[in-house]
Design brief:
Layout: E1 2-3, H1 6-13, E2 22-30, H2 41-51, E3 60-63, E4 73-76, E5 86-90, H3 97-109, E6 119-127, E7 137-145, H4 151-161, H5 170-175, H6 189-223, E8 250-257, H7 258-265, H8 273-291, E9 301-307, E10 321-327, H9 335-355, H10 358-365, H11 370-382, E11 395-399, E12 408-409, E13 412-420, E14 429-436, E15 439-446, H12 453-468, H13 478-486
Parallel strand pairs: 5-6, 9-11, 11-14
Antiparallel strand pairs: 1-4, 2-7, 2-13, 3-4, 6-7, 8-15, 9-10, 12-13, 14-15
Amino acid sequence: MKQLSALDTIFLRGETANQAMNVSGLGIYDPSSRRDGSMDFRKVLEYAAERTRRSTLFRRMLVHDPLRLDQPYWADDSDFEIRKHVFHSTLPKPGGRRELDQEVARIHARHISRDGPLWEWWFIDGLNSIEGVPSGSFAVMFKLHHAAFDGVSAWEVINVSHDTQPHMHDEVLKANALPSAGGWRAPSIAHKGLRAYERLLRFPFDLAKTSWQALPILRKLIKEDLTGFPFFSGEAPPTPLNGPLSPRRCHRKFSVSLADIKRIRSLVPDTTVNDAVLAIIAGAMRSYLIAKKSLPKRSLKVGVPISIRSAAAKGDGGNQAILSVTPLATNSTDPVARLRAIRQGTSKKKAYVNDIPAHLLAEFMEYVPGVAFSAAVRTFVDLGLARVFPLPYNLVVTNVPGSRVPIYFAGARMLEYDALGPVWEGVRFLHVITGYLDTVNISFDVASDQFDVGLYESLLRKSLAELLSRTVPAVVSKKVVTRLKQQKLPSKRRRRTPVSSPGQLEVEAPLPMAAQSGSSREYM
């Protein structure tokens, strides 16, 4: 058995009627790479039954203590049935991008049943009118509860369900498979009761011990700049983006080539992929609020989860992250100045996180009483306090892993990958950065009836164009290259004329979703 962490429990007890705590991945596939050239629900069901035996993550369910005073436990589901977790949906005609986005938003907003393991797979067919996607293609949505998976551990589920070749041999798959499910027995009622009582008695002593260990960090905060502390942000300015959640959900995906991200990174030294994407979002947000005549004088603030997962914790599932809050510089008119300010803010926050031992961050989360948090969330929602209390941030931008090489689901090649996350009460706006091959995707989910999705999509394109217009062109025409080669230079001091090309722009990490292994802590 394994007990949920306090952070896992927060995602579990933070759910409300309009706030489903789900994380999802969406792959679009071309079945022509399969031997039979087709895919249907029966084949997906058989494939899911085989793949879900490869990891304990697919078989564990929640077990609570009698009074629900302590955090729940994970235990094997002895009555596991694959048909309770794999579903089928067909897009309405014409089966285009808009229909797919609407269906994905609808599925993602539905709560996952807690009567078994907290995941669902959805086979979606009828994709007959999506540009760049062959007719007859299909999608699979991997829907997981945030209490069981964060963005990094969710990618482990994608790894288990995909191959790097269309027809990999079964023996090769078995050699690379994760341990099969089994061994997580549900704790007895007596054990759960004693565990809850023990934690209650130890609480003040454990808190005192952790606080003592954190004293050097507190001294540093007092001595240096408090604004660099990840959790410090002050009050975020009020905007139409913030308020109570609407039952309605909208989902869209905006794609940017990795080559364009490289060019944006060249504008400011040491800029990361995430910094470049935040600058694109900041420009679009600024333009949107100007169009709605509601741009605040102070900068918008963004919450960015930072992974603190170590190599030893790989494969454990659950959540191992903290939230960093940083300004987006939306009060600046210059796109390069915004990028520079974002880079300064994120690097300062990351430096503080690197100085804080990961175990301290995790231990402090354990002192959040789950029952009290659940009651606080429901009071916040029921009384509509999102309209009254100032929030520390206006939106959330999170980063989830992806793949730089082609991957296959049951032999069908993945064409596109998308990701979704939970929208929190009071915030209403979430961006997820992910990618596949040489494309970086900026997906966004909105829980507001008033938000103009079409306008925001166009402003993301405008913001990207503004940043690219300030860069050196990455491609030089063949005529220019030929002319430079033919140009005669003095023989004694012959110089090589630099020619900008995509190959000259180096990338710190291939994509923001590069695997986060080891003890390094990257933005998710």
